[in-house]
Design goal:
binds nicotinamide-adenine-dinucleotide, 3 domains, flavoprotein, Enolase-like, domain 1, FAD/NAD(P)-binding domain, Pyr_nucl-diS_OxRdtase_dimer, alpha/beta, binds flavin-adenine dinucleotide, globular
Length: about 450
């Protein structure tokens, strides 16, 4: 049995910074990884997809700038092999940097293999037993594959990023983050894309007006969007995939060479031997944690997507910050300190913080709202990018900002002016009375706040 002060399972967005901090604080630390270093974000998530999104935007601009007085003759050519090689280089750089972090630190031992719990204190990896007083689980998740698709040659976010040629046809099942980001980028690369979503709008968790605006943006970009498409099934036929949908009210079919499944993710907690421990899971397989991210076993913590408290890189990294502060810092951070925030990297992007209209109404909070269509924003007009709108919500009793939803050019950046005010606990008047730079989209946030109305 090898003894450590701490064991971390998984090198996602929380594991590596935690390993570095534990080591800095003198703890002999083992970190175990069964796949590529860096986990989802680095290898098959944020980094590669945002690199592809960037190439797709260049392609779109090159081919669609005639009304801006810029005309490129001929067809824009997409070289997916070069796009992929650029992404592989970004990933390789991250691998190198992580390897260096682990190699240069004498307090860190990296184990390449699959970790399994034998009991609350013992972990098996590559036939070796390890034990430690503190254990941290950062095992992330993987794409959900419904039974109806198991028999066909489907793609996921992982295999999409291995393609060398742009598919002629692409059917995407699911109109959430993964579905929309891939649908728009591959449409811009030249694929004929169809999205099948069982809900009544794309990004249906958002407020109805935002979900509808997103659906319109995606449709206008030439993607075929089939909503309320329930009961979707797929079978191999004549060397292609035949997708059947709306099975009850007379089924419809589509033939496609490529099918992407983007119907959510499941946590990697089912192959971890947790049944041999006292760590409790919820009914969807997420590890239950308290406000300090401890599991039902106090010396075992769960961080990142596997605890079901966030599903983003920044939430996983914040989980590291919470645990790290609980262990080593004077200022103790907690899960309940966090305002939910995220962006979907469609073009234009959607960015969110805090509560939206649906959530405010569901919680019965007395609130005010201000809205601004991007068509009224000078900078958006100058850029020729006027799709979308901004919404901001204020607590009618405290004047504090409850949340904001920005759908528009550059929204993933200027949402941070609201995020920062929320963390500062400022009233909305602070933002309303601030002088912002002209011409920016941000300058319309104070203007918008002049016109609050009851929600
Ligand atoms: C296509 C896509 C795009 C995304 N884009 C964004 C984005 O733009 N912005 C954003 O904030 N988020 C994005 N995300 C989400 C983001 O990638 C995750 O939230 C983030 O990676 C956090 O993951 P994590 O730290 O929980 O673990 P992960 O990054 O999933 O890492 C977990 C690691 O644990 C390892 N592991 C699992 N089980 C074991 C075991 N038994 N033994 C040893 N090792 C094990 C895995 O191999 C993996 O390396 C995206 C996700 C996808 C799929
Ligand atoms: N920009 C980002 O931050 C980013 C990007 C990609 C992924 N992610 C993370 O990855 C997670 C997973 O993304 P996702 O898009 O796979 O999931 P999602 O939950 O965002 O969307 C899944 C969609 O698939 C639909 N769906 C589910 N089952 C279906 C079925 N059988 N037939 C038709 N439609 C069906 C759902 O109605 C939903 O709209 C996200 O929650 C997010 O946390 C984040």
């Amino acid at each position: 049995m090898k003894k450590f002060d701490a064991i971390i399972i998984g090198t996602g967005q929380a594991g590596p910074p935690l390993a570095a901090s534990l080591a800095r604080n003198g703890l002999k630390t083992a970190i175990i990884e069964k796949g590529a270093l860096g986990g989802t974000c680095v290898n098959t998530g944020c980094t590669p997809t945002k690199a592809y999104v960037a190439s797709a935007r260049r392609a779109f601009i090159a081919g669609n700038s005639r009304e801006m007085g810029v005309n490129i003759e001929g067809k824009v050519q997409i070289d997916l092999k070069t796009i992929k090689a650029r992404k592989d280089q970004l990933i390789a750089d991250s691998h190198k940097s992580l390897e260096k972090t682990f190699e240069k630190d004498e307090h860190i031992s990296l184990f390449r293999g699959k970790a399994m719990f034998l009991d609350d204190h013992t972990i098996l990896v590559n036939g070796e037993e390890l034990t430690a007083k503190k254990i941290f689980i950062n095992v992330g998740g993987r794409p959900r594959v419904p039974k109806d698709f198991e028999a066909v040659n489907y793609l996921t976010n992982r295999s999409m990023l291995q393609l060398d040629e742009v598919p002629e046809n692409l059917v995407v099942i699911g109109g959430g983050y993964v579905g929309l980001e891939f649908a728009q980028m591959f449409s811009r690369f030249g694929s004929k894309v169809t999205i099948l979503e069982r809900g009544s709008a794309l990004m249906k968790k958002e407020d109805d007006d935002i979900a509808e605006a997103i659906t319109e943006i995606i449709r206008k970009s030439g993607i075929n969007v089939l909503l309320n498409s329930d009961c979707i099934k797929a079978a191999e036929k004549d060397g292609e995939i035949e997708v059947t949908y709306n099975c009850e009210e007379g089924s419809k079919t589509i033939q496609t060479s490529h099918l992407l499944l983007a119907v959510g993710r499941v946590p990697n907690t089912d192959e971890l031997g947790l049944e041999k421990t006292s760590v409790e899971l919820d009914d969807r397989g997420f590890i239950k944690v308290n406000d300090e991210l401890q599991t039902s076993v106090p010396h075992i913590w769960a961080l990142g997507d596997c605890n079901g408290e966030g599903a983003f890189t920044h939430t996983s990294f914040n989980d590291f910050q919470i645990v790290n502060s609980q262990l080593f810092e004077e200022r103790k951070r907690k899960l309940s300190d966090r305002f939910p925030c995220y962006a979907a990297y469609i073009d234009p992007p959607l960015a969110r913080v805090g509560l939206d209209e649906k959530q405010i109404k569901a919680q019965g909070i007395k609130a005010k709202v201000a809205e601004m269509p991007m068509e009224k924003v000078a900078r958006a007009k100058e850029k020729g990018e006027t799709a979308g709108k901004m919404k901001i919500f204020i607590d009618a009793e405290t004047d504090r900002i409850l949340g904001a939803t920005f759908l528009g050019t550059g929204a993933d950046e200027y949402i941070h002016s609201v995020i920062d005010q929320m963390y500062a606990g400022a009233t909305y008047q602070v933002m309303r009375d601030a002088v912002h730079i002209h011409p920016t989209v941000s300058e319309l946030i104070p203007t918008m706040l002049e016109k609050l109305r009851d929600l």
